[in-house]
Structures are given as C-alpha cells and as structure tokens.
C-alpha cells in the first residue's frame, strides 16, 4: 500500500519541462520589475523621504479615500451582488456584463464618463451644482467617487460568487420559521458569505488605493486635496525619480501586505 502511494506521489511530482520553463519565465517577467524597485531604491535617504510631509500627506489621503470608496462599494455593491445572484432579473447576463465593464474599461475613459455625468455641466452634476452648489470634480469627494467606480466590480464579483456557492437551505429554514427576508439576509445570508465579502472588500480597497487614470481625469491633481500616492508617483517621476521609487515601494509594500494577509486568512486553497 505504501509502495503504491509512493509511486502515485512520484507520478504527481513529475513535471513536464515544456510547462515548467514558460512558468519560470512568466514568474521572472512579473517579479523582475518589482525587484528593480528594490535595487534602485535610495536606501540611504529612505527614512528621510519616507517621513517627509509630501509622502505622509499623499499616503494619508490615499488611505482615507480608498477606505471611503470601499465603504461606498460595500453599501451599494452587496445588494447589487445579491440581486445578481438570487433575484430573477430580466437581462441578468447583460446587467452582469455592464457591472464588470469598469474592469476592462481604460480608467481614463471611466474618468471622462464620470466627468460627463457628474461634472458641473454633466447630465446629473449640473443639477447638483445649480440647486445645491455641490460639485464633485476636482475635490477629495471626487477622488472617492472615481475610486469607487473602478473598484466596485471586484466586490460585486466576489460577493456574487460567494452567494452562488452558499447553501440556501439555512435561508429556507429561517423563512419557514417566520423570519422576514431582511432578518434572514442579515442573520443568515450575510454571515454565510462573510469570507467572500471580506475578500471582495480587501481587493476593492487595494484597487482603490492604486487607482490613477480615473482619479486624475475626474478629480485632477491638487496636492493635499486630490493628490493620492499614484499621482504623487507620477509627479515625482518627472522631477525627483528617487522620490518616485520610494513612493512606489510604499505602495508595493502595502499591496503585497494586503494580498498576503488576504491569502492567509480568507483565500487559503488546498495545498
């Protein structure tokens, strides 16, 4: 028996070279540019640059806007995912495709679309400005809106997948016992898909943190107001490349930390 197990393990352990070589090349293709940041980083002046006012300001603004954008995505995205997963909607396939459009849409195009709708002369924005004096473009709130627009599909896809995989018998049992639909959703459905919600929220937050194209198009680039970390990297690259490397490293560390923690806690697969 042990001999048969050893033979099976030996068979599984054999890897075709024709697959291994491209896989190693792909891994190197992804990792070498990141290693380049570490090699070219100005390590001697790193502490001074990390604790400069510009980096701190951009980092605080990025964290604040990404967190607020994730909050908006949670409030709006979870109900949308529930509708896509459970409700009988006409044209559900088309709606799902439209929800995922921001994933493939160039971010700059997303920013232009937001500007045409929410700008001071936009389809909706003109009324908000004329009636209430509210203008979203080129404000911190505009950064949040732009980040939420590009990040929400990550949350919707994750939560919808979790809802489709969840066992609905517990919801049926709760309904049979007289629980209202809202109570069932809060106390049965939502806890059962919590790992999917957390995974989607973290991915959403990470995407919002790295958002650039829609932000600079819709919210502009004003230090202390709309200049997030990606925009600060873009600005620094033209005037101070070492500062751009330091800012890029900060974003890289934050992103890797988030994804590693997500993998260990919520996305652990079979070994």
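^ structure tokens above, recovered residues below v
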């Amino acid at each position: 028996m042990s001999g048969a197990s050893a033979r099976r393990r030996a068979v599984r352990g054999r890897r075709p070279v024709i697959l291994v070589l491209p896989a190693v090349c792909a891994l190197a293709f992804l990792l070498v540019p990141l290693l380049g940041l570490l090699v070219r980083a100005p390590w001697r002046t790193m502490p001074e640059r990390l604790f400069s006012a510009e980096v701190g300001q951009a980092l605080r603004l990025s964290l604040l806007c990404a967190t607020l954008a994730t909050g908006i995505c949670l409030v709006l995205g979870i109900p949308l995912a529930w509708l896509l997963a459970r409700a009988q909607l006409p044209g559900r396939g088309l709606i799902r495709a439209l929800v995922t459009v921001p994933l493939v849409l160039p971010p700059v195009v997303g920013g232009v679309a937001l500007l045409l709708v929410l700008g001071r002369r936009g389809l909706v924005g003109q009324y908000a400005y004329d009636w209430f004096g509210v203008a979203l473009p080129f404000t911190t709130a505009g950064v949040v809106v732009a980040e939420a627009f590009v990040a929400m599909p990550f949350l919707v896809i994750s939560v919808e997948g979790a809802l489709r995989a969840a066992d609905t018998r517990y919801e049926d049992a709760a309904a049979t016992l007289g629980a209202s639909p809202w109570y069932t959703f809060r106390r049965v459905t939502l806890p059962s898909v919590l790992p999917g919600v957390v995974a989607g929220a973290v991915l959403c937050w990470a995407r919002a943190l790295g958002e650039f194209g829609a932000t600079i198009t819709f919210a502009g680039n004003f230090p202390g107001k709309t200049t997030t970390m990606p925009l600060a990297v873009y600005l620094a690259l033209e005037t101070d490349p070492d500062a751009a490397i330091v800012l890029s490293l900060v974003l890289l560390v934050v992103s890797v930390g988030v994804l590693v923690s997500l993998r260990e806690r919520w996305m652990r697969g079979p070994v």
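The chain has a mean pLDDT of 85.
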